UniProtKB/TrEMBL annotation:
The gene is hflX. This is GTPase HflX. Its cofactor is Mg(2+). PROSITE patterns: G_HFLX (PS51705). GTPase that associates with the 50S ribosomal subunit and may have a role during protein synthesis or ribosome biogenesis. It comes from Glycomyces sambucus. The keyword DNA damage does not apply.
Length: 470
């Protein structure tokens, strides 16, 4: 497994488009500084405190159910996450067990092997594929003698590196502090078992007083972030309301991280959004306008990707962003056809969609990366998703078909009416063009006579000018 992981780091950003390059540079400039488990820092709410230091890492997973392929996929994904966070994966170990060890996550025999591997490769961090209890983290750290973090902390760290907007940053910080709070308590418990004495590596917790101060500080910061986010949510809702008032139908692109959502938005609308072969390249939603072949306007929104075991703190913190998806007229669910387990990824996405109440929205499944798919896999994909649209954002294959499928799935204008719009109301004529489907136009002395298909909302606005309705 070692060969597989080494030298993969250089490939991370090979095909970022020029528009995203600045983003990318800024991201790469942000390298790790100090440890999440460090107790030396004065203020635990400090951003520095929450940043992970990961350089040479060894991954460790427990395989409890399913096939060995599934276990390996999960560890591969963890490797990609670790690389996205800027570390070098030097080895990965999987242990077959009925369930994770309550004390040290992996069993004691495997702990010894892990310690030897860490020492032999000069690793500085172990990343466990799961969410470990505070006690497990401490015990494992003590046994292997280097820092141990879990999948949740890793994902939180990536989100922290990638967040750009004020809202995104606040959301991530809130999630991080919530993750940190019980873990501070963990160190506290260890401390009291030690009778307050210094318990050695991993147990050198803050003194009781500092612990209390830290907790108070975190709680205060959490409350402040909640207030800030509430304000930002109002701003977002105002923006969204004005969009709803104009009733431009909205399409949300959702899907597993790295499936090609941003690439598809770029292919559909020519938007220059950062595309990167890294997980969670996109954290801020971006919306672009597009038009149907008949000229009706709609919006397309790129969203944050999903991942298996997305930390619940993050789903909670990103709820307002994810709610954009729940309010769209259509969810375009992008699936990476070249991934070994597309069904598993799709299932993980549907779980999160359901959590934010977006499972009732009509869904259009799009299987992407066709250019990488061999004929056998293609047959399998077609039988798994008989109604999907098959595309390649890279070659452009299927993109026209996707555009048609989106058009068909958008709310349809179902009323045909003929109106006479006075020349002073040029604004209404352009609204008709952008939101309805104009069938005929004729210029008369008293105004423009237009026959068009419109949706109910637009029909209401035009009521005063109607000559005939079908
Ligand atoms: N070969 C191939 N690669 C693709 C295709 N579409 C996207 N990719 C690559 O897949 C990687 C991820 O693409 P993105 O568009 O950033 O994916 P995303 O779903 O927006 O990812 P996140 O924002 O990180 O969740 C990039 O390296 C893309 O170049 C495709 O059709 N074919
Ligand atoms: Mg993206």
């Amino acid at each position: 497994m070692r060969e597989q992981y080494e030298n993969t780091r250089e490939d991370l950003s090979s095909d970022a488009p020029s528009t995203g390059e600045l983003d990318l540079e800024a991201r790469q400039a942000l390298r790790r500084v100090s440890g999440i488990a460090s107790t030396e820092l004065e203020d635990v709410t400090d951003a520095e405190y929450r940043r992970l230091r990961l350089e040479r890492v060894v991954l460790v997973g427990v395989w409890t159910e399913g096939s060995i392929e599934e276990a390996e996929n999960s560890l591969d994904e963890l490797a990609q996450l670790a690389e996205t966070a800027g570390s070098e994966v030097v080895d990965g170990l999987i242990q077959r067990r009925s369930k994770p060890d309550a004390g040290t996550f992996i069993g004691s025999g495997k702990v010894k092997e892990l310690k030897d591997t860490v020492e032999a490769l000069g690793a500085d961090t172990v990343i466990a594929d799961g969410e470990l209890s505070p006690g497990q983290l401490i015990a494992l750290e003590k046994a292997v003698n280097v820092k141990v973090i879990d999948r949740t902390a890793l994902i939180l760290d990536i989100f922290a590196q990638h967040a750009k907007s004020a809202e995104g940053k606040a959301q991530v910080e809130l999630a991080q502090l919530q993750y940190l709070l019980p873990r501070l308590r963990g160190w506290g418990d260890a401390m009291s078992r030690q009778g307050g004495s210094n318990g050695g590596v991993g147990l050198r917790g803050p003194g009781e007083t500092k612990l209390e101060t830290d907790r108070r500080r975190i709680r205060a910061k959490v409350a402040k972030l909640r207030r800030e986010l509430a304000k930002l949510t109002v701003t977002r809702e105002t923006k969204r309301d004005s969009r709803t008032r104009n009733r431009v139908p909205g399409v949300a692109i959702a899907g597993y991280t790295n499936a090609g959502k941003s690439s598809l938005l770029n292919a559909l609308t020519g938007a220059g959004i950062l595309v990167q072969d890294a997980l969670f390249a996109t954290l801020d939603t971006s919306t672009r306008r597009s038009r149907t072949s008949e000229g009706r306007e709609y919006t397309v929104t790129d969203t944050v990707g999903f991942v298996r075991h997305l930390p619940h703190q993050l789903v909670e913190a990103f709820r307002s962003t994810l709610e954009e998806v729940a309010e769209s007229d259509l969810v375009v669910h992008v699936i990476d056809g070249s991934h070994p387990d597309p069904l598993g990824q799709a299932e993980a996405v549907r779980t999160v969609l359901a959590e934010v109440g977006a499972d009732e929205i009509p869904e259009l499944v799009v299987v992407n990366k066709l250019d990488l798919v061999d004929p056998d896999t293609m047959l399998q994909l077609r039988s798994d998703w008989p109604d999907a649209v098959f595309v390649s954002a890279h070659s452009g294959e299927g993109i026209d078909k996707l555009r048609d499928a989106i058009e068909d799935a958008l709310p349809q204008p179902n009323t045909t009416l003929t109106v006479c719009i006075p020349y002073v109301r040029g604004d209404l004529v352009s609204r008709l063009r952008s939101r309805g489907e104009v069938l005929t136009t004729e210029h008369r002395g008293d105004g423009t006579v237009i026959t068009a298909r419109v949706d109910d909302a637009l029909a209401g606005e035009l009521r005063a000018f109607v000559l005939e309705t079908d």
